[in-house]
Amino acid sequence: MTRRRTALPPTLFALSLLAAGLVSPRAALAMSGRRDGTPPRVEMVFALDTTGSMSSLIEGAKQKIWTIVNEVARGKPAPDIRVGLVAYRDKGDAYVTKVSQLTPDLDAVYADLMALSAGGGGDGPENVNQALADAVHRIEWSDKEVRALRVLFLVGDAPPHTDYQDVPSYEETVRQAAQRDIVVNAIRCGTWEDTGRHFAKIARLGGGEFLTIDQSGGMVAVATPYDEELARLSAEMDATYVLAGRAEKRKRAKRALDEARARAEGAGRVAAATRTIYRARGAAGGAPAAPAAAAEADLVTALETGAEAKVEETLRDEEALPEALRGLDETARRKKLEALAKKRRQLRARIDRLAEARAAWLKRNAAEKKDAFDAQVLEVVKTQATAKAGIAY
After folding, report:
1. How many domains does the chain fold into?
2. For position 17, what pLDDT does the model report?
3. Cα–Cα distance between 164 and 178 in angstroms, integer?
4. Within this chain, do residues 128 and 255 fall inside the same structural domain, yes or no?
5. What is the C-alpha end-to-end distance of the chain, expressed in Å?
6. Same-domain status, 212 and 274
7. Cα separation of 157 and 148, whole Å?
8. pLDDT of 104
9. What is the reported pLDDT for 80?
10. Is 374 among the domain residues?
11. Do 233 and 109 share a structural domain?
12. Which terminus of the chain has fewer CB atoms gathered within 10 Å of its CB, N or C?
């Protein structure tokens, strides 16, 4: 006989954790959901050294970014996840920093990550101070009043230049981060002692954790028997999109869908499979299930999210509709949308079952490397998200 597990209401769940001493009173209040009904946020920014010696970690991150966000998305209550990037090198390299703004559009973040390649460096310290300054001041973090974990990960193998006079010291920047309730963690790749000394200080001032991992990042993308079908189901999800608007808008949205899927597939079946899982589970928690351009143009998404005025207005505008809906009356058009919404729900359920089977297979067949980059990031984020935003894992 299979027993059905019943989830506790948020308030009772929060009180039980508080009574057990597992969360603070502030976290328990956040978890009870008694504020305004909006989900808590997790805002993660990675300030990533992209010099030549970091090539293995960068390639591993391209494989594992979807795994990281999938695990963060499993929190209760389901968080609104936003990710940003700051790639950094040093003066005299191809660039000093490249900033990718915080966004809930994980496909956009993934595109920026895929565009990164390691190069330059090889001459000692890097411009860590500029990376931190840009991560704190150019990234559009939420206000302190927003219930959120605002977390910055500094990831690199070289110490900061402390001789540059045209950028604030990391001490000053990290103190400013703390004033804005941004937690700063520092991950040293490799064993450079000077890096460890500075990164440990950065983490201490930033109220975060200092971690050391293998130079390569230690990440292993393990293929499973479920990956091929999961990747295929992503294409089936794309087929449920009804892209509306003027011709150029529809073309742009279709291109965004196709390019996002191709990027993930180009990175391998593991990346494609884990992206599919995020599309299904992230959407259930309110995150975009597709690139922003496609989600904004999609009438099925509008129907699912209760944007009834947008649906009605568009269904009456023949020129804004794709060919498949033209020539039909409004009732027939709506029935098509409802059928596609039902198909999408079925696909999400199928993906969720495959995701559970995939996780069970990995647990049986591939031991987790607890000292790898992705495992370390997840452990820190989960702990800090519980403390700062009342998200339970």
Report:
1. 2
2. 57
3. 23
4. no
5. 27
6. no
7. 29
8. 92
9. 93
10. yes
11. no
12. N
The amino acid sitting at 163 is D
- The answer to the question of residue 19 being in a domain is no
User: Token digits for 264?
Assistant: 């993930």
Edge-to-edge strand ranges of the sheet holding 182-189:
97-103, 80-88, 41-49, 148-156, 182-189, 207-213
Return d(Cα 303, Cα 276) in angstroms, integer: 21
pTM for the whole thing? 0.85
Q: Verify that 94 and 202 share a domain, yes or no.
A: yes
Q: What is the pLDDT of residue 204?
A: 98
376 shares its domain with 352: no
Predicted pLDDT of residue 34: 42
Structure tokens at 22: 């597992």
Same domain, 247 and 354: yes
**Is 1 inside a domain boundary?**
no
Distance CA 8, CA 13 (A): 5
Q: Are residues 242 and 142 in the same domain?
A: no
What distances in angstroms separate CA 349 from CA 146, 162, 230, 283, 355, one per listed residue?
32, 53, 12, 12, 10
Q: Is residue 4 part of a domain?
A: no
CA 126/CA 160 separation, integer angstroms: 5
CATH number at residue 105: 3.40.50.410
User: Are 182 and 85 part of one and the same domain?
Assistant: yes
3-state helix, strand, coil in the chain (%, to 5): 55, 15, 35
Spell out, as residue ranges, where the chain has pLDDT lower than 50.
1-8, 26, 33-34
Longest dimension (CA), the chain: 71
- In this prediction, residue 6 carries a pLDDT of 41
SS3 (DSSP) at 138? coil
Q: Amino acid letter at 153?
A: F
| Per-residue pLDDT, 170 | 98
Q: ∠ at Cα 71 (261, 186), nearest 5°?
A: 100
Residue pair 143/182 in contact by the 8 Å Cβ criterion: no
Q: 307 lies in which domain range? A: 227-365
